[in-house]
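Reply to dn_fold:

You asked what the input looked like. This is it:
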Amino acid sequence: MNFDNLPKGWQVKRLGEVAKVFSGSSAPQGSQYFENGKYPFVRVQDVGLFGRTKNLTNTKDKINDEALKKFRLVLAKKGSIVFPKSGAAILTNNRAMLGVDAYVVGHLAIIEADEEQVSKDYLYHWLCNFDVASFVKTTSLPSLRLSLIKEFEIPCPPLPQQRRIVRRIEELTSRIEEAKGLRLAAQKETEAIMPAALHEIFGKAQLEWESVALGETIKLTSGRFLPAKQMQDGGPYPVYGGNGIVGYHTQYLFEESKVIIGRVGAKCGCVHITQSKSWITDNALYVTDKLKDIVDEYLALALRHLNLNQFAKQAAQPVISQKLIKPLKIPLPPSDEQRRIVAYLDRLQAKVEELRRLQEETQKEIEAMRAAVLTKAFAGEL
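and this is what came back:
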């Protein structure tokens, strides 16, 4: 950061001058040190769970009195700020302020503010805006030395100004969080559009047209096994598994596109229409013959409306079988009506995709707004 134009009265100090900088300790090895534990033990994953938080109180692990007696563990005070200093987690730039006194693992740096010089809240927000990942020399085994962390430069206005800046940051970020909440609500509404439309369309079709069992409408069979080592990223032909494309291959099984149903795995029952010239593995069923006049795209929509996953056998590996699928019924209008339904839902899907695109852009704008607020704050422009 450029500190040439800081407001009058601001000083640039090293982090080690305004805070105690230290790290945690090695984690006790053995479940006996965590049984009936009552003291929070903060690990990297606890920080990663929140990404950014000013009130980390709950931890996955808690240590007991036996651990305290046997090991020299490091206690960090409530209000201390922790972040990863070793491993790939450095690159996440996650930050957490402790909401309780807690013991901390050695992979985390601990920053304890000298509140006669710097507010812990000001320091937290500054650290959130400070990209420690930019100081990492290698991404293979990234690490940050405490001596380097102590040298980080921080712009320090007088304490009353720090408190004012914190209030302003939190006021603006609260509005940003509200905007994010509204965006998430809009996203949920967008994701509900197509399921609701399918329910309405096929609900009406069931009243107007005859419903026919799938076993009387189509024939299915499993695809062909293909070892993972034979799939090639550079292959020209897509390979379809239980949930869409899983790789590429130098050969294909089918010249024409096929309607497929995921047969195995947590996503079994998913329905796709393959590209032409593709391979279908034995993790999917595909339509070999049509016994009725049915359009591929209409069939795919009707199968999705059935939500086939709900009929899967819930074993160690969920499975959809032909035996389960064949008795299920779908409405079968004339082919012209099928095409009309497909065209209507395609237009609706295009609108949904546009909404998703706009929502993604809004999300990026919201995140950029947060970064801009912090940048202005620590340049004395807020």
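DSSP finds nine helices and 20 strands in the chain.
Hope that clears it up.
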